[in-house]
What does this fold into?
Amino acid sequence: MDYYSKALDFAYNPSHARWLSPLLLGAESCICAFIIFRIPYTEIDWEAYMQQVSQYLDGERDYTLIKGGTGPLVYPAAHVFIYSLLYKLTEGGKNILVAQAIFAWLYLAILTLVMACYRMAKAPPYLFPLLVLSKRLHSVFLLRLFNDCFAVGFLFVAIYAYQHRVWTVGSVAYSFGVGTKMSLLLAAPAVGMIILQALPLKRAMSAAFLMAQVQLTIAFPFLPVNPLGYISRAFEFSRQFLYKWTVNWRFLDEQTFLSREFALALLAAHLGLLLLFSTTRWLKPSGQSLPQFITSLWESRPLLMHQQTSLRVNPTHVMTSMLSAMAIGLLCARSLHYQFYAYLAWSTPFLLWKSNLHPIATYAVWALQEWAWNVYPSTKASSAAVVGCLLVQVLGVWWGTAKDFEKQSVE
It folds into this structure.
């Protein structure tokens, strides 16, 4: 085998990821240490988090009365429990170095899990360097200490568990992620499609009830005091967005950005894309149309037919469905802030690969997106690049997965 053939084999053969991953993780450990000790920490939300959880630790249970320097508490209860633990581990939030060390370990743990998910989906090794090269992602974890870091961790725990068909663990992890930050609700349609195809209806409903029970359990300390207050703050869908902080729609004028028509257009686009992916991509393991699938749920399907469908819900399909659902939600979001890159940075390489882009094009789109998310404050050009790269991923993965399961029709 000549050197060119060896290079191609190294780049494309998924088996090489087994030894490439530890090398990249070792390098990342050094990079994380360098960032913590050499680059100044930037205060954004950490102090507000600490102020809010200190009120919880002091006995406050009315969610509407818990506030911090940046405003009221607007995250679900798992966020409160996680940062209450961090409050105790960091001397009331004052020991930033310890907090950064914890987030460095969190970053490396999630990165290990992300690489394992990529390997389960048989992604080629040439994607793996892109998982460790993001300047913005390092900033979100190590210099900003955002709660999105924990949420994205739960997302990939759920993906990994579903890839291994450990449905209970995956469902609990996903629900904890939603309980940390409601951004993970964006993946809910894909999660529903995965579970309904992989499990019999009764077990699928049990998984849904389990997720609901997790939400009730983590909210229990607050529900007896002010249940509506908790729900309205933890899952605040009516939040007002500020034009000056938007990363994605800066190329529009402020009047358009704030208009009701624009909000409705984004909602319509989101629903339309979810319907498109649900009917033409996420249901492919069943080999049925959406009406046929809905009808079959309430009928007694032959055991062999269900087993065939369930087995087609393979690791690649699980990861593609959940990450594409997140990308659709981010594309149609009214406003993205810089910490939302946590949900995108480790998704983009995989989605571009599933789009069947050439590796050079994959690296080019990734580089453009990385540049755009590192422009502060955002500009018309950077925000157009953010939206454009998301559009490439969403439409690309839809086009690139057109032939998935083509040879596996349901009898």
